[in-house]
Amino acid sequence: MVMTTLLLHYMQWFLLFCAMVCIIRLVVGPTTADRLVALNILSGATLGFLVVRGVYQQRLLYLDVALVYDIFGFLGFMAIARFLRDKLSKGGE
Amino acid sequence: MEISIREWLALAAFASATVFALFGLVGLFRFSDPFSRMQAGGLAGTTAIFSTFIGALLLSPSWEMGARIVIIMLFFLISAPTGSYIVARFVWQSGFEIGKTPKKMLRGPKE
């Protein structure tokens, strides 16, 4: 039981670290495509964090939130990509 | 400290998640063009998160939690490759070539 707590605790910190690195890429990234790649990884890391947190605290609520977050994050991601593409084809040369 | 077989398996899953995520993040910073970065991002975004799910599934205390994690895994198997595909199509249509970045894209699509 001690080992379970230790593993879940470690994994939460590690996923937070991954999210931080992705945010750095998201802010720094020189082109829009780099930012989209970083956003993709960031949403995955957040999903993993929510699942691990739910198992750690033994609450089902976190897992429901994780599922809804995944669905809406995916839809939002699709909308962002489509918006950027329309802007690119209208405004670019 | 007594370690059960479930915890050993979860340790293996979390260790593989750590290795894949670290190499993916290193690739995200070391590679030069968005296509290569997307390859590293796919490594970190799919394999590492899926290993994390498997470890969490092994450590889950009840059946309800396990069933929810399985549903999330199934949805993630659909949504993650589709997201990568959307990024790839965006990068392709905005005129990148493999190995070099055009000058007009350095400030985003507007300029």
**Cα-based radius of gyration of chain A, to the nearest Å:** 17 Å
Unreliably modeled segments of chain B: none
Most extensive interface, residues per chain? A-B, 52 and 59 residues
Q: How many alpha or pi helices of chain B?
A: 3
Could you say which structural class the secondary elements and strand pairing of chain A correspond to?
mainly alpha
Distance separating the two termini of chain A: 61 Å
Question: Could you describe the 3D structure shown?
Answer:
The complex is a heterodimer of chains A (93) and B (111). By secondary structure, chain A is mainly α. Chain A has one domain. Chain A contains three helices and no strands. In chain A, helix 1 runs antiparallel to helix 2 (32-57). The longest helix of chain A is centred in the C-terminal third of the chain and has 32 residues, at 60-91. Chain A starts with a helix and ends with a helix. Chain B is an all-alpha fold and 111 residues long. Chain B has one domain. Helices cover 75% and strands 0% of the residues of chain B. Chain B has three helices and no strands. Chain B has helices at 5-30, 34-59, 63-93. In chain B, helix 1 runs antiparallel to helix 2. The radius of gyration of chain B is 18 Å and the shape is elongated.
Key structural traits:
heterodimer, A: mainly alpha, B: 111 residues, mainly alpha
Topology:
The complex is a heterodimer of chains A (93) and B (111).
Chain A: H1 2-28, H2 32-57, H3 60-91
Chain B: H1 5-30, H2 34-59, H3 63-93
